[in-house]
Design brief:
6 helices, mainly alpha, about 55% helix, 3-stranded antiparallel β-sheet, about 10% strand
Length: about 140
């Protein structure tokens, strides 16, 4: 986990391995195109709550392409390290972990995506992502 970045989701700390510059370009491009339909509708205030963010996102979820979202979350899974040290890419360990911790499934993938993305965008966007108080989840 030498280049891993950690984040908390629910009661546990997860990690994602850093992306190489080539993979970062692919992931950031795909994520931007995938999330573009909802990004332009967000008004993120510094210190805003998860509830504020969710209330803005929910009405626009239907604008997202489900296949693109699935691919993006699969890319996050490929770099995720579970709190027990197992790789999320190992199917049995992944299913076993999230069968025991189902409430952390989606938020760990969303926070994993944000963790992977924030270093590769201008500092202002990274600050916005970090300023959204997802630590409440």
């Amino acid at each position: 986990m030498n280049n891993a970045k950690t984040f908390k989701a629910g009661k546990h700390e997860y990690a994602v391995t850093g992306l190489s510059p080539d993979k970062a370009i692919d992931f950031c491009t795909d994520a931007t195109i995938t999330l573009a339909p909802i990004l332009n509708s967000l008004e993120i205030a510094e210190g805003g709550s998860v509830g504020d963010l969710v209330r803005q996102i929910i009405p626009n979820l239907g604008l997202l392409n489900p296949e693109r979202v699935k691919k993006m979350l699969a890319d996050v899974r490929a770099s995720m390290i579970l709190p027990n040290g197992n790789l999320a890419s190992a199917e049995f360990q992944y299913h076993e972990w999230f069968m025991q911790n189902p409430s952390e499934l989606m938020i760990s993938h969303v926070k994993g995506a944000m963790t992977l993305l924030k270093d590769f965008f201008p500092q202002e966007l990274g600050t916005i992502l970090a300023g959204t108080n997802l630590s409440e989840v």
